[in-house]
Amino acid sequence: MILRNVIKKNRYVDSIFLMLLANRLKSLEGIDRISAMMGAEGNKGILEESGLLDQAGREAAPNDLIIAILAESDEVVDRAVSEVDDALDQKDSGRSEDDYSPKSLDSAKNGKTNLIFCSLPGPYVRWEAKKALDAGINCMIFSDNVPVETELELKELAKEKKLIVMGPDCGTAIINGTALGFANVVSRGRIGIVGASGTGIQEVTVQLHHLGEGISHAIGTGGRDLTEKIGGISMLSGIEMLENDPATELLLLISKPPAPRIEKMILDRMAKSKKPAVICFIGGKTEEAEKRGLPAARTLEEAARLAIATLLKKKFEPKNFDMSPTEAFAAAAAESLKLAPGARYLRGLYSGGTLADEALVLLEKFLPFHSNLSHGQKLSDNAVSQGNTIIDLGDDEFTVGVPHPMIDYTNRMERLLQEAEDPEVAVILFDVVIGYGSHLNPTEPLIPAILAARERSKRHLSFVATICGTNEDPQNLEKTREALEEIGVIVMPSNAQAARLAAMIASRGKIDFMNSEKNCHAEKL
Amino acid sequence: MPKNFDLLQQPLSVVTFGLESFSLALKEQGIEAVHVDWRPPADGDQRLLGILENLR
């Protein structure tokens, strides 16, 4: 094997471009491994550990691009290098001469600039975000790996200047109808959202859209905002912004369960709000909210329905399925009948963290589940499922050096094939998150992988999916659904419904959701 | 009104750092977005960056 590091001096390229480039090059014949990274110390460490760093790479500076290639011959390495050059040339030629590309915030901003969107590597976020806040500009920080101390410092500075910092690790926001980061094209309307969860915001806004309502704005806070350390600074700012916004008639708060003291503080604040509010703290208890007269939902879909009922002052009627309970039971039974003897487990392969969480919250009451989430039984190795498993493949441990699974399906497809080989697996449940930021054509990698999984499993394998998106999204919901249904995937209208149906199939009807009682509890037979 | 409130009332005008695809997505939606051709400041030297910041 030949290892060669090719260095492009002073060539800064963003990480998604590099990861997609490396993925493409991996398919070249004769390539064993390939990685393309900027020469930051952390990246060099990753390359060194994977045995991909040579002396040239060790000497690279943070501004240099390293392409590390392990291949069977010098000829193959040369071919890969020439592909890299072509890709970089193509990237440069894609930029028109009119595209103004300044070198700093100072030269990029003008009097109207009201937001920076930052997806830089974590260690550089503080430097740029502080400059923006000092200049009176709000921040959306998509980056993760930002120290919590930096988050607190930035949010306190923003509070002092009456600005907002959305993030760090804020994947989703919709401001004035504009999708920022991973977000869907949804109807404008009267419901304003503040959310500490990216896919949580996506699922709720999509469900509101399907139910004929819409949103005024969806403000993200980043997942750590409601911890004791940060104290909900951005959520409180977001609440105030929406309370003063004439387009917003109802506030909807979305988060994983906050720290207990922060939860009480936020709920006390909402109890005094001049606008009605609905609370959805996925996996948390609803008592604290209800004690204060605030309607509380246990799932994202329920949050959307409850928000509409509250807005219209109508009685909230929980539903487990859009179809009738009998139809759902029949659909699950028909699928269960096709399962091979011994196939009994459900495997949930998720790209959306909150969607994985929602599925686990819904199902763990009825079946024991393993997971890499904060609840459920721990897996002994997150790379291998055990029994019933729900796994968040967007978690940090799966995204070192590779793009998020909403952008690149490679990791998920490998896991799907792995699950198919386990004879005890009955149902594979998965999410397809479309919209801005996500893979432009998710069925392109998904369909061959599902067909290959079927082939490899040599038995009937049920696939149940949820597509988080709308027909207005660039990928188009209908088109995506039709393509999946054509190969026998059961596509449900929400994540909660997909999770319920998957459990009904895998348990062969031992679990059903026939009764639509409060909070959509299932009845165990 | 606070500047965060303005964010909801004024047209968005965004400066993006990092992944260029996010800037392109904003432009596709008709939003004014300027992408910074960013390089790590101080050649990525975090210690030097700290010194520069104190000088600011």
Features:
heterodimer; A: about 525 residues; Alpha-Beta Plaits; Rossmann fold; 4-stranded parallel sheet; 21 strands; about 35% helix; disordered C terminus; B: alpha+beta; two-stranded parallel ribbon; 2 strands
Quick structural gist:
The complex is a heterodimer of chains A (525) and B (56). Chain A has 525 residues and is α/β, with parallel strands linked by helices. Chain A has helices at residues 15-26, 41-49, 55-58, 74-93, 105-108, 125-134, 148-160, 198-210, 233-243, 260-271, 287-291, 300-311, 325-336, 353-363, 410-420, 443-457, 477-486, 495-506, and strands at residues 2-8, 31-38, 65-71, 115-118, 138-141, 165-166, 172-175, 178-181, 188-195, 215-220, 250-255, 277-281, 345-350, 370-371, 377-378, 389-392, 425-433, 462-468, 490-492, 511-512, 523-524.
Q: What this model shows, in words?
A:
The complex is a heterodimer of chains A (525) and B (56). Chain A has helices spanning 15-26, 41-49, 55-58, 74-93, 105-108, 125-134, 148-160, 198-210, 233-243, 260-271, 287-291, 300-311, 325-336, 353-363, 410-420, 443-457, 477-486, 495-506; strands spanning 2-8, 31-38, 65-71, 115-118, 138-141, 165-166, 172-175, 178-181, 188-195, 215-220, 250-255, 277-281, 345-350, 370-371, 377-378, 389-392, 425-433, 462-468, 490-492, 511-512, 523-524. Chain A is of the alpha/beta class and 525 residues long. Chain A folds into three domains: 2-93, Alpha-Beta Plaits; 170-311, Succinyl-CoA synthetase domains (Rossmann fold, 3-Layer(aba) Sandwich), CATH 3.40.50; 325-524, Succinyl-CoA synthetase domains (Rossmann fold). Chain A has a seven-stranded parallel beta sheet, sandwiched between helices. Chain A has a four-stranded parallel beta sheet with strand order 10-9-11-12, sandwiched between helices. A three-stranded antiparallel beta sheet of chain A has the order 1-3-2, sandwiched between helices. In chain A, helix 7 links the parallel strand 5 and strand 6 (165-166). Chain B is of the alpha+beta class and 56 residues long. Chain B has one domain. Helices cover 46% and strands 16% of the residues of chain B. In chain B, strands 1-2 form a two-stranded parallel sheet. In chain B, strand 1 (13-17), helix 2 (20-28) and strand 2 form a beta-alpha-beta unit. The radius of gyration of chain B is 16 Å and the shape is flat. The interface between A and B is large, with 65 and 43 residues.
